[in-house]
Amino acid sequence: MELISGQNISLNGSELVIDMCYQPGVNFAGEVDTSAFLLTNQDKVRSDSDFIFYNQPESTNGAVVYSKTPTGGRYVLSTAKVESTVDKIALTMVVDGSSTVGHLASLSLKVDGQASFNVPLDNRSEKALIVGQIYRHNGAWKFKALGMGFNGGLAALATNYGVDVDDEPAPTPPPILEASKPPAGVSLEKKLQEQAPHLISLAKPVSISLAKHKLEHVKAKVAFVLDASGSMTQQFKQGNVQAVLERITVLATQFDDDGQMEVWGFGERHKKYPDVSLSNIKGYISGIQNSGKRGLFELLPTLGGVNNEPPVMADVIKHFKNSLEPVFVVFITDGGITKARAIKDAIRESANYPIFWKFVGLGGHNYGILEELDDFTDRLLDNTDFFPIDNFKTVSDNVLYDKLLMEFSDWLVDAKRKSIIR
């Protein structure tokens, strides 16, 4: 099966043979290095032995064996040997030399007998790509085609995944920026210093993740949808909801010229709250909690104590369906999802509009349909992504922003191709 960026497929068999192949273009100058990273659910290696490349061609227990070929590299993956602490295997390539990915004539990844992926190379300027991922899903293995650009060489890519490369330092070139615009980190840090100095530490991880995903100059509306059902009580009390809101607000400040983010809360009922920005972010959650009388099991006044997702999703779609800009919706929930059909209907409808949903599981369980979005193909395009956070306090800002932004750039490309956005 021939895949496109963002598409996935279930894999069969306990031994997979994966070939990454490239052909240099006429003006290509350099060499191509391919590598694999065995990653936990935090997108990090457990140790340097999880980095498989030309100098370390085999994982500790032989689950992944690598061999260099004249036109790329071959991986033999024995899924039965992959330890339970490994959630995914990232397959990557790096151009070592003066050329970039765009100077290649072709680049492909093939899972023998099951799937192939030809990476789009037009107008690419990166030195590295995360070509695809093999990952666990409901006790089985799947492959996802990515073609995600990454600025920097092999050392920068390895460092991103947590490999210690102190013994082989390599400079990481800055992201390619438009000459007329200042670097994102500079302007964002200035805004934070002036309006929300207590969040100044977030400027660097936001800017790094935006550059990594080639989103530093993207303009988009950002919305925040918050599960306020009774089971979220501890997340409110521990300050995790306010902390997540602060991090999304900083992202919205970079995405949206006016720095405003629209906010919805939902329980059995839903409500749209005043826009949040750097100027009013401090104490925002406690402010809306205390904006009226709350019932015994209510976290936000008048919303009720049980979760009911479809009505608030319908309201968000109605609000943004005619937007002239792409819309990035961050939807926070602790699970207990039961209305799968109605949620799928809402997602299917929104796929026709400039709306991308990032569902974030916050310290919960039973995420239902949200954990099965990779299998939901009955829509115009994939406009969703989901990731869970078991314990918000243990997740670094770098990891959080990377997970938040993953797949958004792929959706932008696909939505533009289908004329959903300009």
Explained architecture:
Helix content is 23%, strand content 30%. The protein is an alpha/beta fold and 422 residues long. The protein has two domains: 7-161, sav2460 like domains (Lipoxygenase-1, Sandwich), CATH 2.60.60.30; 184-418, von Willebrand factor, type A domain (Rossmann fold, 3-Layer(aba) Sandwich), CATH 3.40.50.410. Helix 2 runs antiparallel to helix 3. It is globular and about 70 Å long. The model is unreliable at 167-186 (pLDDT under 50). Pfam families: TerD, vWA-TerF-like. This is Tellurium resistance protein TerF.
Spell out the blueprint of helices and strands.
Elements lengths: L1 E2 L4 E3 L4 E10 L6 E9 L11 E2 L11 E6 L2 E7 L9 E9 L7 E8 L3 E4 L9 E10 L2 E11 L3 H7 L23 H12 L7 H10 L8 E7 L5 H5 L2 H16 L5 E6 L3 E7 L7 H6 L19 H12 L6 E9 L4 H11 L4 E11 L18 E6 L7 H9 L2 H10 L5
Parallel strand pairs: 1-10, 13-14, 13-16, 16-17, 17-18
Antiparallel strand pairs: 2-12, 3-7, 3-9, 4-5, 4-8, 6-7, 8-11, 9-10, 11-12, 14-15
Helix pairs in contact: 2-3, 3-9, 7-8
Pfam family, one: vWA-TerF-like
Protein name: Tellurium resistance protein TerF
GO biological process, one term: response to tellurium ion
